[in-house]
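hey so i finally got around to running the thing on that chain from the lab meeting. sorry it took forever, my laptop kept dying and i had to restart like 3 times. anyway pasting the input first so we r on the same page abt which one it is
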Amino acid sequence: MELPGSGIEVLDVYAKYDSYYAIEAVTVYLNSPFYTLLLGPNGAGKTTLIKVLVGLLKPVRGRVRVYGFDPYKERTVLSRLVGYLPQPGSTRPTPFMRVRDLVAMGYLATKKPPRYVDKEVEHAIFASLRVIGIESLADKYLTELSGGELQRALIASVIVRKPKLLVLDEPLASLDINAKCELIDLLLKLHKSLGMDIVMSTHELTTCTYFEPTVVLINRTVLSYGPARKVLTPENLKMAYPSVVEVGGLTILTEDHAVKG
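ok and heres what got predicted. didnt touch it at all, straight out
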């Protein structure tokens, strides 16, 4: 499929719920290949921006293009290019479902009826599980999984269709530090070995983020974006986070739930 655009274009975008503007004057350009973190405190508009990018929310002003397509008007087309994983807990698959069933649902979601699991689907399921590294969990029920394993299973259910762009909303939430590091390693592998573009939101700086992602620092509007080493400065973090403490030359984020007025 030939794409009319080479990445993500967000130009002067405003989006709101009822009368409240969740994001204002947001401008970001990302050229493929990209691995991008949306970083900011809780309530900063990260989820809103993600919903705009995947076509779930129509901006009230501005221009949005994902690989040249308008995500709200051309959502059906983009569904073949974009894999989206909402915040943990926002979707609740049945606990009596096995991992392989969850991945099968992801594969068949965009297929026309009749939908059934044949050899082609089985091959796609186990190929996805192998990439994620959880082939041994195929017959486990979702209730038997740890938080990190469930998150991997959900990612497998999204990448089984081989999207060009993987969008994840707070995938590190509620995971312990080891699971966070394992998940970040996995996403980096998907980006490098499969050539998958990634946009991931997070409200925290994780010690195992050792690579050099593009960082979009946001608090209702984009405060800075670019390479992590240029964006993650004490001055920028003070603008984004409501309460910052400097101790012994370290910048510590002490509160990430309130949003600056």
